[in-house]
Amino acid sequence: MASLPVSTTINSDDVEYLCHADESLLDVLRDRLGLMGAKEGCGTGDCGACSVIMDGRVVCSCLVLGAEAEGRNIETIEGMADGNTLHPLQQKFIEHAALQCGICTPGFLMAAKALLDTNPDPSEEEIRFWLAGNLCRCTGYDKIVRAVADAAIVMREERA
Amino acid sequence: MSVARPLPHDAAPLHVTGAARYVDDIPTPAGTLHLAFGTSAVAAGRILSMDLDAVRHAPGVVAVLTHADLPRDCDVSPAAHDEPLLADGVVHYVGQAVFLVIAESHLAARHAARLGRVEIEAGTPILTIDEALEAGSHFEGGPITWSRGDTEAALAGAPRRISGVMEIGGQEHFYLEGQAALAFPQEGGDMVVHSSSQHPTEIQHKVAHALGIPMHGVRVEVRRMGGGFGGKESQGNALAVACAVAARLTGRACKMRYDRDDDMVITGKRHDFRIAYDVGFDDEGQILGIEFTQYARCGWSQDLSLPVADRAMLHSDNAYRIPAMRIASHRLKTNTQSATAFRGFGGPQGMLGIERVMDHLAHETGLDGAEIRRRNFYAEAEAETKVGTGPGHGHKFGAAHSPKARYSERENITHYGMEVTDFILGGLTDQLLASSDYAVRRAAVEDWNAHNSILKRGIAYAPVKFGISFTLTHLNQAGALVHVYQDGSIHLNHGGTEMGQGLFQKVAQVAASRFGVDPALVRITATDTGKVPNTSATAASSGSDLNGMAAKAACDTIRDRMAECLAELHQARVEEVVFANGEVRIGTTTLPFAEAVQLCYFNRVSLSATGFYKTPDISWNRVAGRGRPFFYFAYGAAVTEVVIDTLTGENRILRADIVHDAGASLNPALDIGQVEGAYVQGAGWLTTEELVWDDAGRLRTHAPSTYKIPACSDRPDIFNVALWDGPNRAETIYRSKAVGEPPLMLGISAFLALSDACAACGSGYPDLDAPATPERVLAAVTRARQA
Ligand code: FES
Ligand code: FES
Known about the structure:
The complex is a heterodimer of chains A (about 160) and B (about 775).
Chain A: E1 3-10, E2 13-20, H1 25-32, E3 51-54, E4 57-60, E5 73-75, H2 88-95, H3 105-118, H4 124-130, H5 142-159
Parallel strand pairs in A: 1-5
Antiparallel strand pairs in A: 1-2, 3-4, 3-5
Chain B: H1 12-17, E1 33-39, E2 45-51, H2 53-56, E3 61-66, E4 90-91, E5 97-103, H3 106-113, E6 117-122, H4 129-135, E7 144-148, H5 151-157, E8 160-168, E9 180-185, E10 191-195, H6 200-211, E11 218-222, H7 237-250, E12 254-257, H8 260-266, E13 272-281, E14 287-299, H9 305-314, E15 325-333, H10 347-365, H11 369-376, H12 425-435, H13 438-451, E16 455-468, E17 477-484, E18 490-494, H14 503-515, E19 522-524, E20 527-528, H15 543-569, E21 577-580, E22 583-586, E23 589-592, H16 593-602, E24 608-614, E25 619-621, E26 626-628, E27 632-645, E28 651-660, H17 668-686, E29 718-723, H18 748-759, H19 774-786
Helix pairs in contact in B: 6-7, 9-10, 10-18, 14-15, 18-19
């Protein structure tokens, strides 16, 4: 199969790669670029483990073609911390013990970041329904919701 | 001391940055091959022919193997030697591996696997419990029966009697990381395998057997799993063996991971059950005798079904003292996935059986559900006055100081003959009913129901008493390996595996406490059969009980050696050497821990040790159903409130309150996390998670689009979780209790609350089956109304 050249931006870096026309962005990230943070939980857009942010919107990277990243701005979990300084969401996930096996965590963080980037003061209801596309089999979600709500407070304070 | 502190999971910083590696994230050398199974589309039959030419010629395919191509039978079963890696001429379920594709990429392997033409002479599959009973398709030849007391007489003489039947659905594990394995061929025919497995030793054993080499030729490493829940106790064997066989054949690294749909179609799930009951009781709601018949659908191979079905029998009393009980357990062989371990391991099904009886009894007598349960409780253990808080020596809470039952005229003995000496549900229930405001809320629910005809509410209390230990006694052992390096850093390894439960962190906290140092000095490394051999599966909630004790033993050995050396050097007595606060005090001298270590090194002290632990005082005769299978019991209780829509059957959990007993918790943050997750998983099992097979035996719910695990939006609006404040009476590691499985059964209260809401619709008993999907809730509402 012919390969397509793609130029895109990933975590603020210009990136170029070749991929097949039928290759998902998730496979490109993992297999071609070595960015292993996004996980395949289902491959069908139902679990959110593969969540990344594309042009400010959270997407399931298993449902996006690698070729569709052309000219876009992609954010992945690998770019969330600022060097050694964790993003408030990352910090709060640790503090609130909002993870167990951790395989859903990158996806939740991406989805939560997309939420807080557009809605800095979400209600608990909004958090819960926003994150309903991300499955976690371990935590029962309570600590995740609390961590996101708490991170929102920190981020608002940082902005103020 | 670092035990009892709510420290975060040891890998949390890796998880939040996406840097934590799971099997599929491990860097592989160029030329790594990928595997996929071609599977049977037929539930039962004989393979007449296989045309795999299209598979062999598909792009990227390197080799295709059938049973005939394997070096030997390559059995992948955990015990009974009844699961050939690839079907040996007969197929037993839809999804059974028939041939193995080895290809250049994961997708190439999967695409090619779809191209096989397997001609099968279809037989008549046995799919349901009824079909299995009709065909006499049992494991162990027929039902297993245990009995205690004269059940027949108790039933015949009872003033009142009820009976019923309940269907209990299975459950897909839905670990978010699918099954995965990766094999690297080594020199001399050896093999290194990375596996997402709760049981590295079994993987080692199975791979060695498949390759025809001794176990010392195989090293298995497990750093972490993305969830296990029992689903990775035996179900990873096939992938690991396939990878090892393919790696041997090709000389290249081989990786296999199941895509989600394949995972759900191929692997076993929680056993579905039917439980029939016949109960005799008096006007006070006191149970006098019960006859249970349990039917477990085990699937095509034995797997772990026998101990699972045993544990269902063992939990048929839950928290209740039942003078006479007889249980017949049918372990039915069917042409479906081989049902396997799942958090609770049969316990949840057995417990739901007796809780269903309690629910029915409350309805029949008009007594409150919490009240009728309390009337039937085992006698409460005496308030503990002298229970120690030390690290524990692993002795049972001995008979000499066994608490006397408060009601000494009542025998406090289970139906399998074990005395219950640590019962705390009376006190725990008092605390929960008060903290959840149960009485007031029950009245409010009744008031709501009197004034609302469409939306009905329900509230229910349910207790949990769960036995801790493997029922196969020899599995209750563990080993650990500890090295202290010259710079004072500590390397810790043990046989337990990390699947998110925080086991590594807990055991690291134990080790840090023994040396009196910061847990950050302790590095727990991947579980490795080359470091600690002959381990048991991380299962039966036993991880921290067993491995914590083994690690403690290893640390203490090194500590004692250090103390002896340091005492001699400083002319102090050994008892005067104290390890605390990152320092070692020797009489009047104080050294930083690292300096003390270095001093010992210069004085040629061995700073490496193994530790071993075996649970004392347990014995079990599974044929007779008699003995002391458990070291102790873990307790908990929950109150759940729900609302149902009587027009659609839709329902929501409004509030859940939990008090759970983790003994003196090693890490309250991790333990509360376990309780919350387990409750939600248990509630999911009994509400939204429905497995559907069609008439041909095909699983139709094989992806998250059709199989509904709880999502963030399903979490209860109000969710209060507290740990019971009390040490374990048995001498476990720092008097903690196992916490992996027991809280799953707290989810039963959600199911009972739904039953309560249905019962509010009429005077009949709703007879709700599990999972309580909207359809079943609607049917139950109808039944309640029709009576
Ligand atoms: S892997 Fe993309 S949503 Fe599940
Ligand atoms: S922490 Fe395991 S799936 Fe979320």
